[in-house]
Amino acid sequence: MPEISDPQPGDEQPRSIRLTDPRALRAYAHPLRMTLVGLLRANGPFTATRAAELTGESVASCSYHLRILAKYGLVEEAPGGRGREKPWRATARYTEWPEYSEDAAVSQAADALSAAIAERYFERVTRAMENRHRLPKEWREAEQFGDSLLHLTPEELAGLGERINALLLPYEARASDPSLRPEGARPVIVLRIAYLDQDTPEGADSPGGADAPESEEE
C-alpha cells in the first residue's frame, strides 16, 4: 500500500521504507501522521509551521507528530532552517508493511494499519466523487471506478499484483522529475486493492461480473 513522494533533486532517497516494529506500525496508523508523511512526499520539505498551515492543526501538534515520525524513521530533518523553523522531509517515497507475520503483535499492528489506510482511501475516494462534477469532461471519462470478480489461486493473485506494479513502474519517475511529465499531466491516485471474497461460500454460484458505472462498460 504505497504512497508517492516528491524527492528533491539530487536526493538519494530510498524507494520505500518497510515497517516491521509493532510500535512503528501503530504510530504510523495515526491519521495526522499519515497526512504529514503524504504531504512531505508531495510538497516537502517544510517546517512544522507550514505543516500547520496545510493541515489546520496547531504548530505544536504538528511538531510533536513529526518528531514521532522521525523516531520511527519515516521523516527526518532536512538541511537548512534554524531553531524551531527546521524543515522536515520524508525518508522514502513509499511505506510498506507485512501482509502476514507469524508474530501476533506484528500481525495485529499491521492489520490495524491496513484498516486505517483503507479508511483513509475511502475518505479520499468519497471526497473525489463529491467533487468530480468540477472536472473537465476528459478527466471524468478517463477516471476509473469499478471492480472485477475473478477466480484466482493465491499464486495467480500474487502474479497479477506483480504485473500491475510493472505497468505502473514507468510512471514513477515523474514524481521526482517534473521534466518527465507531459503537458496536461496531473497527480492521479491509483488504488490497488484485491481481497478474498469471504461473503460468497466456497463452491457456491457467484455472479460473473461486478459493479461499475455504465460509462465504463462502453
Automatic annotation (TrEMBL):
Region (Disordered): 197-218
Pfam families: HTH_20
Protein name from the UniProt record: Helix-turn-helix domain-containing protein
Lineage, opening ranks: Bacteria, Bacillati, Actinomycetota, Actinomycetes, Kitasatosporales
